[in-house]
Amino acid sequence: MTGKRRSEVKTALTLRQLRAFLLTAENGSASTAARALGVTQPAVSQQLQELEKLLRVRLMERVGIRMLPTLAGRALIDPIRRALSAIDQIEPTIASFREGDSRLVRLGTGATACIHFLPGPLARTQAQMPNLQILVVTGNTDEIVAAVEDGSIDVALVTGEVSRANPSIHMEPVFEEELVGILPKKLEYQLPKMLRPQDLVRVPLILFEPAGRTRGIINAWFKAEGIRPIPAMELGSIEAIKTLVGAGLGVSLIPSLAASSGQKTIVCRRLVRPVHRHLSLVLRTDKVLDAGLRALLAEIRSAAQSLQPPVLDQSPLIREADAER
């Protein structure tokens, strides 16, 4: 069969023809097939004739009072069964999406938000929609926003501003948090209760890696006082930074969300000149908000609202420091 002929056959085949053939072959009777399909026997016979004409081969033959498949017809039974079974799955598969019961939401975010903010919203969304799969990926802001742009993730919760020159991206600020200083217990009485950039350059600095937006905010805080920070260590993990500070290896600046789960080996200090970072939701402007995505966005917004205004007040380390002043 030529390529052109195969194309013609694929285009002309109908579900009625395939169902009429399969039911007739399985039951040995065109009248039984007609009853199952809710049509007349002549209608089934016409579908069989059209299929045979299209394929240019005899598919059914009469043996006594029964209609039986020919050798060619028997060869078609299994492929047609598989084709019709696959087609029968189309409606139930798509129905869940039409009804808004989405199956997957892909969320991109930074490590700090993933650890210290998102567990609650994720758990509540999952409780509402047990069949929803939420895939979370972490990275820096630029990587995550690029993934939103190319459609490989559905929504992002990221730090900092996203270029408003990009018309394909919608950014929604959801909350801001203050950065705080953290220091090991052994330096608790050697540094002031309110920290300045000048105080921190006297001790080893452990900072976020340069590629992150939070590091840029920290650098700007130092630069405003004419200071260029020279870190002893640069790390991508907020928990690693806290652990190393707790071990007495230096001091750092971290988001107050991360300070809310304090360690007994570190002390928090507010900054004389407060500095904040903003967290924003990022979506494509043409993104279809199905039920799963809407539920997750609602939980993120609700959780963010509960943090306003003071994330800091929820930190046991900050409460202890404030009580001492």
Topology diagram in text:
Elements: H1 3-12, H2 15-27, H3 30-37, H4 41-55, E1 60-63, E2 66-69, H5 71-88, H6 90-98, E3 104-109, H7 111-116, H8 119-128, E4 133-138, H9 141-149, E5 155-159, E6 169-184, E7 194-195, H10 197-200, E8 206-208, H11 213-223, E9 233-235, H12 238-246, E10 252-255, H13 256-259, E11 266-271, E12 276-284, H14 291-307, H15 316-324
Parallel strand pairs: 3-4, 3-5, 7-11, 8-9
Antiparallel strand pairs: 1-2, 5-12, 6-10, 6-11, 6-12
Helix pairs in contact: 2-3, 2-4, 2-5, 3-4, 8-14
Structure characterization notes:
This protein has 15 helices and 12 strands. The chain is rod-shaped. By secondary structure, the protein is of the alpha/beta class. The strands form 3 sheets. Strands 3, 4, 5, 6, 7, 10, 11 and 12 form an 8-stranded mixed beta sheet that branches. It has 3 domains: 86 residues, Orthogonal Bundle (Arc Repressor Mutant, subunit A); 105 residues, Periplasmic binding protein-like II (D-Maltodextrin-Binding Protein, domain 2, 3-Layer(aba) Sandwich), CATH 3.40.190.10; 108 residues, Periplasmic binding protein-like II (D-Maltodextrin-Binding Protein, domain 2).
